[in-house]
Amino acid sequence: VAKAPPDGYTLLVGNHAGLAMLPHLSKIPYDPFKSFAPVILLVTVPNILVVHPSVPAKSLSELIAYAKANPGKLTYASQGVGASGHIAGELFKLHAGVDIVHVPYKGAAPAVADIAAGQIPMGYNSLPAALPLIQDGKIRPLGVTSKERMPQIPKVPSISEHLPGYELVNYFGVFGPAGMPQPIIEKLNRAVEAALKEPALKSRFETLGLLPQSQTPEQAKAYVAAEAAKFAKIIVDAKVSPEG
Length: 244
Prior knowledge:
By secondary structure, this protein is of the alpha+beta class. The chain is built from eight helices and eight strands. Strands 1, 2, 3, 4, 5, 6, 7 and 8 form an eight-stranded mixed β-sheet that branches. Helix 3 (about 85-95) crosses helix 8 (about 215-235). It is globular, with a radius of gyration of 19 Å. The model has no long low-confidence stretch (mean pLDDT about 90).
């Protein structure tokens, strides 16, 4: 996409991994800001902090107390190194002042499966992967990583309710090559925004644990820049490396 003609016919659905995380962990053949023209933010995707029922913590405050009483003994699973669940876990450690060891998995499904099986006590995962196991009582939800509670699980608090300022979500947005004319960007923005308002699509997104957004190209550009700065700070503060 970065090398495509800026005519509006080649577009990218990009997310935090390629635009906010990878630039700080590895060499990439594009500039996350100079190579692309943001069109619109599609959805944000919170993670959910879950524990195996054997963990003696039924709330975030109890989990923090348990972690502080057992420094370095708890482990948490994520979808992989640099994934939103990984960064969410490191941000939690920074805010709560706890020592919990990261265990990266190759994807959401094996991570949440091992939590449900009791192979690892806790982790951060997406709602679609975790919800069936939550409903079956195989894992216990303690908090969502978005600032607000999720409508799919309204009884589960946001982590920010206990740790003010905590917020970490994945996002997906539409981007074109840099240099795409503003009239084309605005036309694409209007078309995608109209699609996002379709009841069937909106309902499908919400069923999957995705929170539909509606932003102008300028707002999308500012959001992507702010998220990149946030991820960069967490990666530096938590000493996150490509090895995990």
